[in-house]
Write a structure and sequence with these properties.
The chain is mainly α. The protein has a domain of about 80 residues. It has 6 helices and no strands. Helix 2 packs across helix 4 and helix 2 runs parallel beside helix 5. The longest helix is centred in the C-terminal third of the chain and has 28 residues. The termini are far apart.
Amino acid sequence: MSDLPTLSLDRPSPSERPSPTGAASSTASSASDAPAHLDDALAIATGEKPADATAAPQFLEREEWITVWLTAHRMGGSIAGLATLEGAPERPGARDAAGAIYDSAAETPSLHWLIEPHSKWLQRAMLIGAFYVPLGRAAFAEVKVKRRPINRRLAPAEDAAPREPDELAAARAAQGAP
């Protein structure tokens, strides 16, 4: 059990941080290699001020974001063929709900990516959703068909003999065949 690492919220010095290849960095650097939002989250968790605490975050305007958010629902519903999702922007309370998401994201540093202009994370999430939602729906439909119970109802004894398709029976009758 002594081989297990000790977990803590202490930041390793730059020279102790592993490099992308897994080895410890041999050169000290004052800049963090970790994404800024992770450094900020760690600083908040340890009671420190984030390094960028003086810079005000840049967000989309609230009304602009709400419009974009609800339009994304319409587009997602259209792509996935989901009328409920496509019609979500017109439902009562849609703007209020989207506004609540905006407010929560503005107050929560780990959610800032949702409301930042040109957020690569939001763009990636939308691309992933545009591909995987229809794929998941198609897979679900396929599984549902495969799990459909087979009609095992037995036919009455007089119907037990194989029957010809109606077209073939009509052709035989027209030729006078039994």
